[in-house]
Automatic annotation (TrEMBL):
Gene3D superfamilies: Medium-chain alcohol dehydrogenases, catalytic domain (3.90.180.10), NAD(P)-binding Rossmann-like Domain (3.40.50.720). The keyword Transmembrane helix does not apply. This is L-idonate 5-dehydrogenase. Residues 24-137 form the Alcohol dehydrogenase-like N-terminal domain. CDD domains: idonate-5-DH (cd08232). One of its GO terms (molecular function) is zinc ion binding. Its cofactor is Zn(2+). It comes from the Bacteria. Keywords: Metal-binding, Oxidoreductase, Zinc.
Length: 344
């Protein structure tokens, strides 16, 4: 079966890869759709990010949906033909963090399409894949394959919102409205946020964030002081979700965050220098948000029930044979939000 294999920056190839036989508690799945993530773009454009580098050929991708072709002998509840979203998170279940329910911090995590360990963990941008039964989540007939593949980035957003605590009645600021930022908007709105303001430097992400629940969208490239009115009386926002990974966005939000405001850092863009005097004086609570685990099932349920609509964020679907064009399109934030590929 064909797979998309990255060898070096800008060297993405379609190659034949073998598919193993499913074991007793596994499923053989025909992949139908896959979304291009920011990490996929880093591998494609730069060969990695930070100290994480491609050291051997690796199949990309971790945001996928598909249909079950065959079940292992021990699986009795997933017949062939079942449509599923596939969780790429495969924690060991045995380490101290898994035993505490912190599966996203697993000491032996195997996450699809990741060069964080060697040998690399091969990804899911392939026509066929064998998965554990625990990774399969049933998809409603009302959901398209592309929408189902959005369960993974929605899970990231749901985890970030959970890290912030109760949202009911909160005034929320989201800096950076790429796919994750926009999905944080949708998740925070579903969780009960009263007001959501978003910032970005491009028009398309701001327009997309408004479609999924934002109240006010501010282009800080066109109006660098757009947030200034929210700085009165020590700030207007209870919660900040920083999804751009930009140090200037984080620092600029400090002035508009209320005392004892909660900062959830989601975006990764390199090391940052924090104004610790402001953190202390305003008693900020700084929290990180890394991946997800149990939120994947919640994401699929919300999508299945139509409680969160991701269609406004899908800006392009390409056949995998046009993968290079798909990656180039996904890398242009002025024209694209979430770009997906089909693997028929």
């Amino acid at each position: 079966m064909h797979a998309l294999v990255i060898h070096a920056p800008l060297d993405l190839r379609i190659e034949d890869v073998p598919t193993p036989e499913p074991e007793a508690n596994q499923l053989l799945v025909r992949v139908r759709a896959g979304g291009i993530c920011g990490s996929d773009l880093h591998y494609f454009n730069h060969g990695g990010f930070g100290t994480v580098r491609i050291r051997e050929p690796m199949v990309l991708g971790h945001e996928v949906s598909g249909v079950v072709s065959r079940a292992g002998s021990g699986v009795i509840d997933v017949p062939a033909g079942t449509r599923i979203a596939i969780s790429p998170s495969r924690p060991c279940g045995l380490c101290q963090y898994c035993q505490q329910g912190l599966h996203n911090h697993c000491l032996d995590m195997r996450y699809y399409g990741s060069a964080m360990r060697t040998p690399h963990v091969q990804g899911a941008f392939r026509q066929e894949i064998v998965i554990d039964r625990s990774q399969a989540h049933f998809v409603a007939d009302s959901l398209s394959d592309a929408e189902a593949a959005m369960a993974e980035p929605l899970s990231v957003a749901l985890h970030a919102v959970r890290r912030a605590g109760p949202m009911l009645g909160k005034r929320v600021l989201v800096t950076g409205c790429g796919p994750i930022g926009a999905l944080i908007v949708a998740a925070a709105r579903r969780a009960g946020a009263a007001t959501i303001v978003v910032t970005d430097v491009n028009t398309l992400p701001l327009e997309s964030a408004l479609k999924v629940g934002a109240d006010i969208a501010l282009n800080v490239a066109e109006a660098p002081d757009a947030l200034q009115p929210f700085a009165a009386d020590k700030g207007s926002f209870d919660v900040l979700f920083e999804a751009s990974g930009n140090a200037a966005a984080l620092r600029g939000a400090f002035d508009v965050l209320k005392p004892r405001g909660i900062i959830v850092q989601v975006g990764l863009g390199g090391e940052m220098t924090l104004p610790m005097n402001a953190v202390v004086a305003k008693e900020f609570d700084l929290r990180g948000a890394f991946r997800f685990h149990e939120e994947f099932a919640v994401a699929v349920e919300l999508l299945n029930k139509g409680l969160i609509d991701v269609k406004p964020l899908i800006s392009g679907v390409f056949p995998y044979q046009e993968s290079v064009k798909a990656f180039q399109t996904a890398g242009d934030r002025s024209k694209s939000m979430k770009v997906l590929m089909t693997f028929d």
